[in-house]
C-alpha cells in the first residue's frame, strides 16, 4: 500500500533555501512574491539567448558536415576526372 | 573547376565548424548531444518527477556524454570565481532527480556561469547532503523558518529584502 504523499519540493527551491532559508520560507509558506521582477525577466532573456547559442552551434555543425561532404565528393570527382 | 569549388566548400565547412565550436564554447557547454532543453519558451520540457522522495524539477539542459546523461544548470548573468553553494545544491538536486527517474546516477553535473563552467562530482556524500536538505525543508514547511546567514550583501541582493523582518540592514 502506498504511503502518504510527500509535499513536493522543487529543485530550484533547494537553491533558494541554501541562499537564505527565510527567503525560501517567505515565498513557499508565507506566499509572498519577491521584488525585482525586471531582474528576473532579464534572467529569462539571458536563458533564451543561451538556448539560441546552443541551437545555432548545432546548426553550424550540420552545415559544416554537409559542406564538407559535398567538398570531398567534388574533390574526389575532380581528381578522378583529371 | 570541380577541385576549385571543392576546395572553396572545404574552406566554408571549416569556417562553419570553427563557428560551431566557438558558439558552443561561449555557451559553456561541452561538445555533446543536448537531449533535453528547458531554456527555450517555445518548447518547454516536462519536469522530472521523483515521487518516492517528493522532488520535482527541470534542469536547463541534459547532455549525453559517453552514454550517460549529465544535468546542466545555467546562470548566464552570474560572474564568480567560485560557484555559489546554493547553485551547487540546486545542481545536486538535478543529479538526484536524474538518478531517481532513470535509475542511473550521473557522474557529475555542470554549472555554467557567464564566463566559466564548474563541475560538481555527484558523490554519495553529495547525494546524502541533498536528501538531508530536502528533509530539512519539508520539516520547515510546518514551522517558522529563520534567516540562515549573517551576510548583509546577500540580504541586499534578495528579492524579499524590503519585506523581510529579519533582513540585515546596514
TrEMBL record, chain A:
Organism: Roseiflexus castenholzii (strain DSM 13941 / HLO8)
Keyword field: Membrane, Transmembrane, Transmembrane helix
Transmembrane segment boundaries: 59-81
InterPro entries given in the database record: PDDEXK-like_dom_sf
UniProt-recorded name of the protein: DUF83 domain-containing protein
From TrEMBL, chain B:
Pfam families reported in the protein's UniProt record: Cas_Cas4
Keyword Iron annotated: yes
Cofactor note: Mg(2+) or Mn(2+) required for ssDNA cleavage activity.
Any one GO molecular-function label of the UniProt entry: exonuclease activity
InterPro entries: Cas4_exonuclease, CRISPR-assoc_prot_Cas4, Dna2/Cas4_DUF83, PDDEXK-like_dom_sf
GO terms under biological process: defense response to virus
Cofactor annotation: [4Fe-4S] cluster; iron-sulfur cluster; Mg(2+); Mn(2+)
DUF83 domain ranges (all copies): 57-164
NCBIfam families: cas4 (TIGR00372)
The keyword rRNA-binding belongs to this UniProt entry's keyword annotation: no
EC number: 3.1.12.1
Similarity remark: Belongs to the CRISPR-associated exonuclease Cas4 family.
Chain's role: CRISPR (clustered regularly interspaced short palindromic repeat) is an adaptive immune system that provides protection against mobile genetic elements (viruses, transposable elements and conjugative plasmids). CRISPR clusters contain sequences complementary to antecedent mobile elements and target invading nucleic acids. CRISPR clusters are transcribed and processed into CRISPR RNA (crRNA).
Enzyme class at the top of the EC tree: hydrolase
Keywords assigned by UniProt, alphabetized: Antiviral defense, Exonuclease, Hydrolase, Iron, Iron-sulfur, Manganese, Metal-binding, Nuclease
Protein name per Swiss-Prot or TrEMBL: CRISPR-associated exonuclease Cas4
Amino acid at each position: 500500500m502506498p504511503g502518504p504523499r510527500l509535499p513536493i519540493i522543487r529543485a530550484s527551491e533547494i537553491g533558494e533555501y541554501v541562499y537564505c532559508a527565510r527567503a525560501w520560507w517567505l515565498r513557499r509558506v508565507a506566499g509572498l512574491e519577491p521584488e525585482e521582477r525586471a531582474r528576473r525577466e532579464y534572467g529569462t532573456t539571458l536563458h533564451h539567448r543561451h538556448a539560441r547559442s546552443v541551437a545555432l552551434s548545432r546548426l553550424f555543425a550540420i552545415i559544416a558536415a554537409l559542406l564538407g561532404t559535398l567538398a570531398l565528393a567534388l574533390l574526389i570527382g575532380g581528381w578522378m576526372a583529371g | 573547376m570541380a577541385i576549385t569549388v571543392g576546395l572553396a566548400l572545404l574552406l566554408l565547412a571549416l569556417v562553419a565548424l570553427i563557428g560551431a565550436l566557438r558558439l558552443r564554447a561561449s555557451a559553456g557547454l561541452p561538445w555533446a548531444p543536448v537531449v533535453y532543453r528547458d531554456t527555450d519558451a517555445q518548447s518547454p520540457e516536462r519536469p522530472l518527477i521523483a515521487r518516492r522522495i517528493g522532488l520535482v524539477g527541470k534542469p536547463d539542459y541534459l547532455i549525453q556524454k559517453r552514454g550517460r546523461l549529465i544535468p546542466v544548470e545555467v546562470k548566464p548573468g552570474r560572474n564568480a570565481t567560485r560557484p555559489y553553494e546554493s547553485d551547487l545544491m540546486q545542481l545536486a538536486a538535478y543529479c538526484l532527480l536524474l538518478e531517481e527517474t532513470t535509475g542511473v546516477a550521473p557522474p557529475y553535473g555542470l554549472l555554467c556561469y557567464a564566463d566559466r563552467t564548474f563541475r560538481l562530482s555527484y558523490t554519495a556524500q553529495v547525494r546524502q547532503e541533498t536528501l538531508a536538505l530536502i528533509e530539512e525543508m519539508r520539516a520547515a514547511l510546518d514551522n517558522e523558518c529563520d534567516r540562515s546567514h549573517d551576510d548583509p550583501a546577500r540580504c541586499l541582493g534578495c528579492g524579499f529584502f524590503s519585506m523581510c523582518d529579519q533582513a540585515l540592514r546596514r
